[in-house]
Amino acid sequence: MTDDLISPIIGIYRNITIEFCMGPGPDTPYQFPQTFEHIVAGRLPAERLVTGWAGLEGVEEVFDALRPGNYADIDHMKILIRHDLDGPGIRLA
Length: 93
Known about the structure:
The protein has helices at 8-14, 31-41, 59-66; strands spanning 52-54, 79-81, 90-92. The chain is extended, with a radius of gyration of 17 Å. It is an alpha+beta fold.
């Protein structure tokens, strides 16, 4: 990992929010290691974690799908952005 240069004034002018995450929170300390163990052991097929794909034109739709105002409305677990897909929209896995 390398250092990233962040200029807060650009984010302030554009009204941008940046969120950082470094693993699970204090309420779920074992979810990531357990999920990884299940994948390694073959009990959880990793390809099932990806629920959709989108091209670069669909990035805005991806964020809308993963952050709908009500978390009960989330239909996807992980949507991969692929540079080789054309057009907007999310393709289901």
